[in-house]
Amino acid sequence: MHGYQLTFYTEQNCHHGHRTVCEWLLHEAKQMGIQGATVIHCAEGTGHAGARHAAHLFKLADQPVQIILAVTEDEAGRLLDAVKAAKVHVFYTRAPVEFGVIGASDANDVSDGHAPPGETRRFALFGRKPH
Known about the structure:
Elements (H helix, E strand, L loop, with lengths): L1 E10 L3 E2 L2 E2 H11 L6 E4 L2 E3 L5 E3 L9 E8 L1 H13 L5 E8 L33
């Protein structure tokens, strides 16, 4: 499939409402049916204003966080529209990517999440079974 890699950059202590920005983005993605995300907690980074952000031994609040999603064009548009509508302050990048799943052990076995030949199978990383 062709689509986009959306990467959102935030900090552990950044909030939108009663949730962290990371939690809010993951919740919105799940509500939209977006089937997966990777959250990376980074050791340190430099923000847009040049300030250094880092995890400290006793305080992780300033720790940089990346939320990475591989999405279709439609999913990218809907998620970015939701972020704009909610007025969430977050830096993001959007890059075109090709994505999919390779390495099926048996193309006829759908019980393990692999689709039969010629069919596309989506995988759930939020705890729901593939459909």
